[in-house]
Amino acid sequence: MAVRHAQRRLIHIANIFCNLFHQCCVNYAKVDTIFRIPNGTVVTTLNTIFLSGFALYPTGPMRIVKPDGNSQFSIVMKTLFRILYFTGLNVIAVAAVAHDGHLHSESFNEGSSLRIWRNTAGKPIEEGSLLVVHDHSIVLENRGGDIFSIERSNLAKTDHAIVAKRLEKTQQINTQPISKFGVTAGVDVSLQLSPTLGLMKNSFGAFASKLKTHSDGRYFFVESNGIPDHRMMVGITAWQQQVPIPQPYTGDNAWQIPLHPLKASHPMSAKKNFFRGAIALAANGIPIFNPIKNDGRTDTFTAGELDQWGGHCGRADDYHYHIAPTHLQSIVGKVNPIAFALDGYPIYGFNEPDGSSVSGIDPFNGHTDKNGGYHYHATRTYPYINGGFYGEVSEAGGQVHPQPRAGGVRPASRPLRGARITDFNGSLKDGYRLKYSLNGQGHSINYKVLDNGSVRFHFVDANRQLTEETYEPRHRGDGGERGGRERRSPRGRRQRN
Ligand SMILES: [Zn+2]
Ligand SMILES: [Zn+2]
Fold first, then answer.
1. Rg (CA), the chain
2. For residue 460, what are the domain limits?
3. Count of alpha carbons within 13 Å of 435, Cβ hemisphere only?
4. Shared-domain flag, residues 206 and 296
5. What is the mean pLDDT of residues 453-459?
6. How many domains does the chain have?
7. How far apart, in whole angstroms, are the C-alpha atoms of residue 264 and residue 270?
8. Is the per-residue pLDDT at 189 higher than 50?
């Protein structure tokens, strides 16, 4: 028995290295390889394999499913080989070379090279190479390295055949007997296939010019300055005199979304919790707060607190939404989520990704799709967005923890009753002008972020009286809304220069 195990082990290891040597060198820095292991699927990069392959392989046999037939050697692989050979693993190294690796490259390359996938009418959908086959969809990678998915029901017959073949081979490889080595260190969760990584890349990728993203296997990180590309503020009729200024959602203050959402044993409703901070992150890197504000009862949308895009600014002059930013749908594309809840589950717009209407959603605005994955939807009425967390989140101080902190420059302001924001123009570079009417008279705030990070405000009242105030950047503070602290006077009562 021990001998058989040893043999199999050797063959498995030989398979691994054979495939590494023969197929993976070309794209080794990309997501290009699918591992099957006894307890799940792994999609990882060759970088990850290099770093973690040795940690991974003792946990059980693994087989590389997706070679792409290209056999260019890389220096890295050669080096790896040398290290193996000269560190006493020469048996493995020799076995790797001796093994006929082409078996796998021939057997598992269905769809793995770039091809144009077509819909049922034969029209091209997109060019891509097949990465993963799910029950109802396939995941592809295009020439530029973007990951995207296509519903299998939308595929042309010929494409179906390719998918079926790939499935067959995958099943075959997974049903072959696999030995266990008794080492049960477990597989790092970071190596298991994230059900949402591709979606996140799609959605946040639509705003690649203004966001920075990366992932560490557990979280997808989004860095943003908190300023959306669309206009802001117009339409607000209940205003706290805050205006949008850039936010330091970068580095260790970046947004983070779990790559492996976990169903909570006790899902928490946003009706009773999370009145502070964000509960979701929109695809453009703008946080989405609970539609109910911090008093625990006011619906920000019906109260007139939100602009035409569903947002407004918090105490740190931090712009955020309180309802689903469905206007992003046309930018991310109808098949992609417009946001992700901070428990990791995607938030789609008013419709399903295939365009059909939404049915059977729970009180959190979510449901389980035909693939068994959970997602939320936008709705036109409360809760508008995820009405809580189906998945696990940590809560601290009334908000999801951890999450970035906003960075204000000035004390929070008070509501300016009767004010209505009528116009907002400008840019971060040139400064902004916000116009509002109060008691039938026009006022404006002109402000600009200076090179040193301080913000200069010009408040112009109905009599064209000007008040100038400049604020240095403060430490990161609380964004959003929070009650209880004395706030500054309304603008009208301020002393003028
Ligand atoms: Zn749905
Ligand atoms: Zn708010």
1. 27
2. 420-493
3. 10
4. yes
5. 96
6. 3
7. 14
8. no
Q: Reading across the β-sheet that carries 124-133, which strands appear in turn? A: 115-118, 124-133, 137-141, 147-151
The pLDDT-based confidence of 370 (bands split at 50, 70, 90) is confident
- Range with top average pLDDT, 4-13, 146-155, 440-449: 440-449
DSSP of 35-101: EEETTEEEEEEHHHHHHHHHHHGGGS--EE----S-----HHHHHHHHHHHHTT-HHHHHHHHHS-T
Give the length of the chain: 497
What is the tens place of the pLDDT at every residue in 58-104? 222 233 333 333 333 344 444 454 455 444 443 343 334 333 333 33
Return the amino acid letter for 251: G
CA of 356 to the centre of ligand 1 (A): 9
Of all ligands present, the nearest one to the C-alpha of 361 is 1
Domain boundary among 132, 159, 193: 193
Pairwise CA distance, residues 434 & 301, whole Å: 20
- Closest ligand by atom to 367 CA: 1
Q: Which ligand is nearest the CA of 240, by number?
A: 2
Question: Ligand 2 center to residue 151 CA distance, Å?
Answer: 36
Q: Identify which ligand lies nearest to the alpha carbon of 355.
A: 1
pLDDT band at 134 (very low <50, low <70, confident <90, very high): confident
The vertex-133 CA angle with 132 and 139, nearest 5°, equals 50
Ligand 2 center to residue 227 CA distance, Å? 14
| 324 and 225, same domain (yes or no) | yes
Average pLDDT for 251-266: 97
| 411 within some domain | no
334 CA → ligand 1 middle, Å: 12
Q: Which amino acid is at 415?
A: P
Q: How far is the CA of 393 from the centre of ligand 1 (A)?
A: 21
Same domain, 101 and 137: yes
Let me know whether 145 and 234 are in one domain.
Answer: no
